[in-house]
Amino acid sequence: MNEESLLATRRKTFYFIIAAAAVVLVIRLSQLQLLSQEQYGKRSDENSVRPVVKEPIRGYMFDRSERLIVDSRASYSITVTPCEFNEKTIPLLSSVLDVERDVMAERINRGRLYSIFAPARIKRDVDFRTLAFIEENRDKLPGVGYQVETRRSYPTEVRASHLLGYAREISEQQLARSDGSYKLGDLIGFAGLEANYEDELRGEKGYEFSLVNARGQIIGPLDNGKSDIPPKEGFDLYLSIDKDLQALAEELLSGKRGAIVALDPRNGEILALASGPDYPLSRLSGVTPPEVWDSLNAQADKPLFNRATMTRYPPGSTFKMVLATAALEESVIDTTWRITCRGSFRLGNRTFGCHPLTGHGSVNVVEAIEKSCNV
């Protein structure tokens, strides 16, 4: 074989290899774009589009005169995007946020399980000084950002701890029982009205979509924000509670253990409901430090225990007024009718005593109520 024939053979072999490679590439591209579009298209969108959750404003609460008693204020939460985050910066971030390294690593890993491209919340309600430090050191903390959220605030002197309840981060047990609309780090109502009206108060999340490059850097909004989904605010609650009466009930219980419930006898509306001792709701809203929770549970007077609804009390002397009113209305007695109390009264096989063993002497119905005479 001469040199010219050898060169032609090599040229044909080279062309064949190029053609075969092109055919393989075309077949593979067709497979990816046509046959596997649903699977890989979704991954491509996840790589190029970053959804940022926009938390809704939780519904407000008003008293019967439409005076605000539960508000929501702006709060800043520090987030980490797992695909951008450098694990070597955990010591610095842990020191800045005052969060243990193991706890921070666990929260980042949980966020990674949800999505490596979605920001995972690391700490709620940071102060402005911490936020400023994070912003000034973005180059040292890749993947670290913040979200503007809301936190409950209480603009009046009314505490109503056991009545209103509080909202804090969802637990793993609650998350397992939820309908899938919650994720770790979300707030959920605990106890009181916050828990009972959770579905109405919480609102609906919104989403803001941003385009990112291969390095995970945000380029700009997706289609100029047309695809964004705005959050829907929660519904407001208008309560039967009277703010001034509630404040008075709490003042009367200050330093005492007990409960006060005031009802409107015309329709059964609750005008005030207080249990003492109580606790400041702001300490349990959002993220509750373990030492705060342990302290409240360790107190001998049990401030978390709702004495207005979680126990039963005998009606006691308050029921004497009901009997007295019935006897007067039915003319069984009148206000001049008297009876001699000698300290006890026997009915059937049971003896009912009075608190003074010697009795109250001769009393009419008014005097009997004044002295709480059982006889």
Strand-residue proportion:
15-25%
Distance between the termini: 135 Å
Question: What's the total helix number?
Answer: 13
Number of domains: 4
The general outline is elongated
User: What is the string of SSEs from the N terminus onward?
Assistant: HHEEEHHEHEHEHEHHEEEHEEHHEEEEH
In the CATH hierarchy, what is the class of the largest domain?
Alpha Beta
**Helix percentage:** 25-40%
Q: Any low-confidence stretches, pLDDT <50, length ≥5? A: none
Sheet with most strands? 5 strands, mixed
Q: Total strand count, please?
A: 16
CATH topology of the largest domain: Penicillin-binding protein 2a (Domain 2)
CATH architecture of the largest domain: Alpha-Beta Complex
Structural class label: alpha+beta
Task: Give an overview of the whole structure.
The protein has about 375 residues and is of the alpha+beta class. It has 4 domains: about 5-35; about 50-240, Penicillin-binding protein 2a (Domain 2) (Alpha-Beta Complex), CATH 3.90.1310; about 245-300, no CATH class; about 320-370, no CATH class. About 35% of the residues lie in helices and about 25% in strands. It has helices at about 5-35, 35-50, 90-95, 100-115, 130-135, 160-165, 170-175, 190-195, 200, 245-250, 290-300, 320-330, 365-370; strands at about 50-55, 60, 70-80, 120-125, 145-155, 165-170, 185-190, 205-210, 220, 235-240, 260-265, 270-275, 340, 345, 350-355, 360-365. Strands 2, 3, 4, 5 and 10 form a 5-stranded mixed β-sheet that branches. Helix 1 packs across helix 2 (about 35-50). The longest helix has about 35 residues, at about 5-35. The chain starts with a helix and ends with a helix.
